[in-house]
């Protein structure tokens, strides 16, 4: 059994040093990031047997994605594309404090993953997966990626896995209208939906109190669980008719990218070891807060650290 | 036409990494900075056709000043001095948080600019300038620099440019009394004065409410515009008898050096495209707040970023 | 008059530290490079009034190309493309000593320059150019780029400029056969050809002694000058029937990329100030040898340094 | 006369860059640290003639400890151990913001200092010392270290030095019970005790109001002076029956390690020049607050900076 | 089946930047290294399914060993020791050019691996291994390590694996005499011996022509294969009575550490895919030469690169 | 007794990373250097009790000179100048391979040392010095520096010290003629002269065979010892009528600056422990060759390393 299988794009992440701009920097910090592999890394860090499926160019850059994921304990099931015909998606990340903000520039056109087809992937892993996770970014990448997402959700669901989906709307990839139609179809095979409050409103046309939004979504799409995140206001879950709330743990934020994925990874890791929704929300929030103190998309944390945050809320000096 | 011509000294800026002291650092971050070229860079970044006049040693260090200014779109009109007889002014900058503070050590004696004479400079550019800007640092550098400042202000004024002047008192260069006399003479050809509240009091002997200070200065020196900056309390402008106020935009300050110059650059850039005093103060404040998030003296910003700060006040994650 | 106008693609250049691999590096050195802008920078460094024409995405990365070229004194005539629809070509450079070698990975598909059209460019600059230079890389990028290359060569030639062309065959962009046909057509408007010995053989089907190759090329395409480079064996020029030879100056090679472009830039800079072919070859070889000691594609050198190499051949300690 | 002699272990300190984890970092910042040498450095920085006694391996790493201490003006009296049989203690320091906290991993087993014996040390320096200082870390290192601590305290006391002792409980080295017994014996020759409120409670079994704790300790162990530190709540001293209080100076904390040692160093430096307890507490608190803005264990500060903090409380921009 | 299982110690490797000394450096490059894991990484890089067995402290530093090996595709079978009672061996590496040389300082006392016992390790992997590899370093670490080495060699041999052994004498760990006795016992279960010429002489008392040495060793210990390495003079193998010779491929050496392990890894990788001794020696030599161009102990190379070296001998610029 | 006292200027040394130019670098490596303190550091590293006399600005930059020298074991006798009126001399060092060479730019005008007077220095140290050393750079700095050099040489000589002098001609400070006159006067109190062959010719008008040059100098100025260095051709000494020759030890040169000072330091260190001229030349040459492998002006070496070079000539891997 694999506890968690995810599917999606992982990109090269290039960012200049603090206080330096993309227009002038002479140096990039080089990392990788992608919503679904971020979730897999958070899950694996917390003890899950996790795997990630995708398509990559057969190049040093493609191989570095696999290397880094493996280093965090994530197994990889990769379709390798000819390096001459395709590329690795890249994103440029410029951290600025306020009022400059954080600027993300995507350069992901023609990435290998846009040509992915189900038959290229080692789908057998789905048949033994406890949970299958993907996000609303993947179907927005290309027609191939959308169709493959649908196939994988369907197959995982059929094989008995819990299917989880983080809406993660990206305005640079598709319009609200495009997203809405596609997502509604995909939701048919989704058990658990993670969605930001503002995406629920903008993409799914859900207005009103957050509890109503959760009920509406659960009812209309027959979700077993709906988790709505509200930034600094914490998260709310609706599970089998019951409502659960979770505040955020305060954090000194060094790098906010990947916070949402860390939340999902923490949530799923606790669920996988049999925790209830309350405990899962706590782990999600704790993993997310730890992530904010770490450079890069990835939640390089331990179960002990997450548990300490849940118990004590902070760190101090341990010596 | 050149929108903005500035004149003054630009120095090499050397600073150790955060948390490290000048006494022990093994590394310097190398940049350039100077009040007048800082203003030119801010202006050029916001769309102005800007030029900077000065004198530099004919050495790699002198040439790097020109290179960096050109990279930001500033044209340079430089008198080149023999590298064997002169040097590039240098300043050492050690950033410390509170209570250590920020320490600036100037090493600017005998810089090439201290021997500048008007006839060495391409003064023709003044005849077609919309605005000419300099500061109270330049006349404090040397007798030659003072005389050249006077000549340039006079010529620019005679040619029809708006002349703007940032008082920028530097106690390490001259006394209040020395500054006072020199500045009063120079004010004869100045249309717009930028002055910090505390310099107005200490150097120009102006006490009382800030509005009264502004009125007093405008009346006594026949300024068209007086802009008084008050740190966190924002800026106040008196223009043709009317008072305008502008709060600061909050910022996560990484490097406060150059904030005032960014303010002036933003103000002048908006004026150059026909904006009124209110709009100019907004651009000034927004450019200044963005500058604080960027390492170095220079406001490497875009017009879009400044407009967004004016409209929204903050950044968030853009993706 | 502009001494030198070049046209072509400039890419972002990303390289890991020495001894580190693309698969594992956590840091990239960030620079720019492109054969034609490399030539313009070498020319401008040696005193030419140089300009570069191209198309770039309207993004921070596109703007950094302009910034860096401007810093080296190159004027830029850029068609700006919508940043959402296009990208900046990138190349990854991994320096390895022997036997690993240097590995270049291009990621230039869909770069903005592939959609360039003559009417987007400020072609007026061609009418006043002394020399127009481009390379065999540009027509290989796309049909648009090929057609624009042809138009620019024709227009520059018609306006009286000397047109120079560096064959620079790139096997990853087109086949020998594709290159051969296109280049023959372009040669109609070319006065000076720079070509590596091995490209003359592989692409242009020229075998035999290098002098015969030069004569054959000059005769068949009516070139005024043919310069054939032979790696460590130096260069040979055929100009108006006369043969000139130039050995290489030995260098401690830190970064070989851009050596050929530095050679062309040095050659053209000497020609522009009236030097004969012998002197131009000397400057070309000297500029190339200096380039090898400098990280990055660009020959950041001075005329004095080039002249010293020509006279003395080496550096020593100057103090 | 030597103003201040300290005795204890100094370790190599290795820390990854901010935001990076020990599990993944590719780089360590290399420094040294140890409570007693930290105190000596703070004292020497503020003008004391200070010396440090210890045992080190005769290796490059051992020598770097001496080098760095000497650079800060601390004289060293070192017993050199065979580098093949022993090692330099090391500690790994990972700074995390909240809620991750700061993680210290000690790797100090079998450090050379654990075999130290009094006769290896240049004890003559004690006979001319004004103050002798050590901490509760040293006797916890090994039986040899404990016995040597006792010998040195006794000898210094006998020679007329003021003996000062910072309790500094380290739970990874010994239990509360082990510490309690050993410390009580050592206290016999101690004049001044520095102790954190929480250690007084946990290790010395002192509960109740802080003033009572101080009185109880002073009475039971016949201390001339007891200084109790209470984190953000400042310090309290009981000296010859009188109580003195000192709030903390606020600081932008970059590196909190060494704050307590800086406090002791500042306190002792002021006492050494004849200051009263109030003035000593002020210097202690000011040195501690400055230390927090500096990377590393060491308070690289000047007397002028400490005095400015005492007078003004903050830094601003000095130029 | 696992192609290759190795057993031994992996250490943290800390090295200052080029030209900087351990006594003064402020920065360490952080990597891992150990003869047996180096071999596993080289093997995995060239396509083997490789695993490494050892014991590590349950700390961030212990986990980073696993992370890094996993990133290179090596599976790990680790006995985890309590982090409070044990440590990760460390080695300090200072690269100096001639005449300074390269200085290695080991700090490996009390490393977790010194307490390893067979029953802590997942020995089942040996029953399905094609090849089992260890070195003469491991039995020198401690009595536990020696006994475990013997047990693993015996079990692997009994299970049908080819057992390979690199003598790798380390004078800082044991004397020639100690090594000789222990190794002779271990050789009973070894099929293939790798040994440096000078170790064969000093440790195994073998003098004379290298071919004789090989024959003598093969005869006395009943080795199937003996490979003798001779630095720049290349390697010689004796296999089933036949002699094979292999020169080195020339390399620009950036980091010589790990060259021998890369040789073994390349040799074993070729043997594992059925290559004969000639081909295995070629792969060994090629992998070793590539390693020399890469910082760190590890041969981060590809099969294509190794094959290119075997075919062409060098790299050039590939673009 | 102090074994070695030196007197001269020490500057801040700023150098860009390898392959990067002063015109474009964003980073400087920060170190210190000065011929006389370089000699003191080499001497102290090899076991001498060494001191250095000079004048420095009372600033963080001045203090860092003292700190770094102290870290290498050199005691300092410094006259502190008001930081507002003076500065620390600086030199910019750009390493280039051939043919670019190494470029040194001095920025030493108005350094504190140019106002030095004997009465500011702790001259008592001269009365107990075994050797006093200075160079031909110091008298070239200013009239004050020249007069102080004369006074110190005279006093040291009178007190019985061996006085040693390295000619070290710097063309940027004075002409051959100016140097010649001044040096002849100073030679009156010099016992040992170190001089480069080419300076002996250019500055001292000595032509002919090197042995004749040595004899001529010894005779004319009554030197006890003359050491003539000839770059790669090694050194020759004439001592009490006998000639000694010493070849160079080959080195992988990373940083050639300071090689000559390391030679002098090694020579004097051997003489101080009673070695004869042959042994002193060996230590000089060995220290110089080791210095070439180390970044910075300073010979951070040990006596063991120097002895190993003398015995074996090279390094290899020590482990």
Write the layout of secondary structure elements.
Six copies of one chain form a homohexamer.
Chain A lengths: L1 E6 L3 E5 L11 E7 L1 H11 L4 E8 L2 H12 L2 E8 L8 E5 L7 E6 L16 H4 L1 E7 L2 H4 L1 H16 L3 E5 L9 H11 L5 E5 H6 L7 H12 L3 E5 L5 E5 L2 E5 L12 H14 L4 H15 L11 H10 L4 E2 L1
Helix pairs in contact in A: 1-9, 9-10, 10-11
Number of strands of chain A: 14
| Number of separate structural domains of chain A | 1
Q: What is the gyration radius of chain A calculated from CA atoms?
A: 18 Å
CATH class of chain A: Alpha Beta
| Percent in strands of chain A | 15-25%
Share of helix among residues of chain A? 25-40%
Keywords:
homohexamer, 319 residues, nine-stranded mixed β-sheet, 36% helix, alpha/beta, EC 2.7.1.178 (chains A, B, C, D, E, F), transferase (chains A, B, C, D, E, F), UDP-N-acetylmuramoyl-L-alanine:D-glutamate ligase
Describe this structure in words.
The structure is a homohexamer of 319-residue chains. With 319 residues, chain A is of the alpha/beta class. Chain A has a single domain (2-312), classed as 3-Layer(aba) Sandwich (UDP-N-acetylmuramoyl-L-alanine:D-glutamate ligase), CATH 3.40.1190. In chain A, 36% of the residues lie in helices and 25% in strands. The first copy, chain A, contains eleven helices and 14 strands. Chain A has a nine-stranded mixed beta sheet, sandwiched between helices. In chain A, strands 3-2-6-7 form a four-stranded mixed beta sheet. In chain A, helix 2 links the parallel strand 4 (50-57) and strand 5 (74-81). The first copy, chain A, starts with a strand and ends with a strand. Chains A and C meet through strand 3, helix 2, strand 6 and strand 7 of A and strand 3, helix 2, strand 6 and strand 7 of C.
